[in-house]
Design a protein that fits this description.
- The longest helix has 15 residues, at 197-211.
- The two termini are 15 Å apart.
- By secondary structure, the protein is an alpha/beta fold.
- It folds into three domains: 2-132 and 312-339, 3-Layer(aba) Sandwich (D-Maltodextrin-Binding Protein, domain 2), CATH 3.40.190; 140-309, Periplasmic binding protein-like II (D-Maltodextrin-Binding Protein, domain 2), CATH 3.40.190; 402-596, Rossmann fold (3-Layer(aba) Sandwich).
- Helices cover 38% and strands 16% of the residues.
Length: 599
């Protein structure tokens, strides 16, 4: 599994991989009779922009004769870049998970096209992502910091780099060494470089800082012991990892609304666009219907690392795929030309991206008033060769912060319901959980708990520990065996189990590790003895609020259409974690992968 993820990451040094926690796509209605539907599958951070451009295109005269004499109708759906890079070589076979087969695929960066094409080549198949696709827009990687913290470090008069963050993270006084003991220790938000380009780019920049280079990073550089020690010090400050920076930004925004922004996280490696969105009051960059942005109390500042950074780009691929007919291709090319027009590039600028079209100057909202600097970055880092990037990913697995995780799986009666293809929901969940075990590092501590009404020793016990928390190297096969043997029974004591699991990890808290619970359920609380959601939230938030001395994260998975997604979201947010929605049971394998990316 790790080898597959490393291969994915090798080519993504210039890619943004934001992933929205909101819905799975946009619905512009069906194409008019006689029109050819141009399915446009885009990375989540630009779905609103592309949906607007598609609606504009569908009204133009060009669209009426775009598909070889017939009309073309563009429809937009969001999908993470990595998922698209996996779906394309598989022939886009799983439309339930990935959406309709696209005419146009626009991942966050062109390197995802290279990944997909390489995977196709490995199968002896021709490339599908054209190598000459144009970039739509650009955005550099930055270190997002609450403004008072950046001010305390003397920014922007004093440039800041990863070496400064290492020094701050190693200071026993934490922010007290900068005159602010109330802020606690330095805490870093950083995504998993196996999944996220911001995580990979940040890790690459760390290596450049450690060896004092701006290009030409070598495998020998990566292997140096002092470089490994430098990176371990940075990783030790990480709150947790994840597949998307938006988890950190949403959690920070909620903390800001409670007045605790300065104790949740000190810095987050994100794209410049995300700083603009956050300061506008739209931390995940996607506004649902009726949602009104409200600027944060404490804005973020984009710190451009003094030793240099990497840019992300956004291509627009009219695919050379078997399902793309001449009419699809003509319509797709017409849409591609349309979005490159000057007025549409200005719309990209308005959303916080830097235009790729040089005819459009960088201007507002890329401005100091929004926490960013159009004159930065001063230095752009060179992209390492693929073997060096592969080495970086491998070394990150050795140097990253470890984790202590309790897996908690619902085995209530409803998990026995059929989910399609003759499999039950529990069948799918078991396979996904077993598959996910391979993602844990050899030094992680992992245990297994199941829950259902009266399942334990005694009628009043609602959960049962099948495998005590211990090193995954010795627990992996035992956990897998016990998971495979699970059977459904009784009801769903959600609140009691969530609280008890959280309290177990709190008692066993290990300061050097990420401490977390992963809870999967397909239902809602059915325990009449404990139906107090507010009381449960109070207990959870008391342990993990802002600068809690023993922060434990409760990551939840709502599995199937009957899961109480609202309650699960509130449980996760109470611990500054994230809720994952697997309403479609067939998506559980990918969801589990995303959850475990936090560790």
């Amino acid at each position: 599994m790790r080898a597959r993820l490393a291969l994915l990451a090798v080519a993504v040094a210039l890619v943004a991989s934001g992933c929205s926690p909101k819905g799975g796509g946009q619905d512009e209605g069906d194409a008019p009779e006689g029109c050819t539907t141009i399915q446009v599958t885009v990375s989540p951070e630009k779905v609103d922009l592309m949906t607007e451009l598609a609606a504009d295109f569908n009204k133009t005269r060009e669209s009426k004769q775009a598909a070889e004499g017939s009309c073309a109708f563009a429809k937009v759906r969001r999908l993470s870049s990595g998922a698209g890079a996996e779906a394309l070589p598989a022939g886009w076979a799983d439309e339930a998970a990935h959406g309709p087969k696209p005419t146009i695929w626009s991942p966050a960066g062109a390197a995802w096209g290279a990944v997909a094409n390489q995977r196709l080549a490995d199968k002896g198949q021709p490339a599908m992502a054209p190598r000459d696709a144009q970039s739509l827009m650009l955005t550099p990687l930055v270190i997002g910091m609450p403004k008072p913290m950046a001010d305390a470090l003397g920014y922007p008069a004093k440039p800041i780099g990863f070496d400064d963050l290492v020094a701050l993270s190693q200071d026993p006084a934490g922010w007290g060494g900068k005159g602010h003991p109330e802020w606690g220790p330095f805490k870093l938000g950083k995504t998993n470089p196996n999944f996220s380009t911001s995580g990979l780019n940040a890790t690459t920049a760390q290596y450049y800082t450690a060896v004092k280079k701006t290009s030409g990073l070598t495998a020998e550089d990566v292997a140096r012991p002092e470089v490994a020690e430098f990176n371990r010090k940075i990783e030790a400050a990480v709150v947790h990892y994840g597949d998307t920076t938006l988890t950190f930004l949403n959690n920070l925004y909620r903390a800001d609304q409670r007045g605790t922004a300065l104790t949740y996280v000190s810095a987050v490696a994100v794209e410049e666009k995300s700083i603009i969105d956050y300061n506008r009051g739209n931390p995940d960059g996607v506004l649902e219907q009726g949602e009104k942005p409200r600027p944060p109390r404490v804005p973020l500042v984009a710190v451009y690392p003094k030793d240099g950074t990497l840019f992300s780009d956004n291509p627009l691929y009219v695919l050379d795929a078997p399902w793309v007919t001449p009419k699809h291709r003509a319509g797709g090319q017409a849409f591609a030309r349309f979005v490159q027009e000057t007025d549409n590039q200005k719309k990209a600028l308005a959303t916080g991206f830097r235009p790729a079209n040089p005819a459009v100057a960088v201007a507002d909202p890329i401005a100091v008033a929004n926490g960013v600097d159009p004159g930065q970055p001063a230095t752009t880092l060179g992209v390492p060769d693929p073997p060096v990037l592969a080495s970086i990913i491998t070394k990150w697995g050795e140097q990253r912060k470890g984790a202590q995780v309790l897996l908690v799986i619902d085995v209530s009666g409803s998990m026995g319901e059929e989910a399609g293809d003759g499999q039950t929901k529990l069948d799918l969940a078991k396979q996904a959980a077993v598959n996910a075990l391979s993602q844990f590092g050899p030094n992680d501590l992992v245990g297994l708990r199941i829950f259902s009404t009266g399942i334990g020793r005694g009628e009043s016990t609602d959960y049962l520990d099948l495998v005590p928390i211990g090193p995954i190297a010795t627990n992996r096969e035992q956990i897998a065996t016990r998971i495979r043997g699970l059977v459904p029974t009784e009801g769903t004591p959600l609140y009691t189990t969530a609280t008890a699991s959280f309290e177990l990890i709190t008692r066993q808290y290990k300061p050097a590790l990420i401490n977390a619970v992963v809870l999967l359920t397909d239902g809602r609380n059915e325990d009449q003895r404990n139906n107090d959601l507010q009381g449960t939230l109070a207990k959870l938030s008391a342990g993990s609020e802002g600068g809690g001395t023993r922060p434990v994260r409760l990551f939840t998975i709502g599995f199937g259409k009957d899961a109480d997604q609202g309650a699960l979201r509130r449980l996760a947010e109470a611990t500054s974690a994230r809720a994952y929605d697997s309403s479609d049971p067939r998506a559980i394998d990918q969801v589990f992968t995303n959850v475990i990316s936090n560790f």
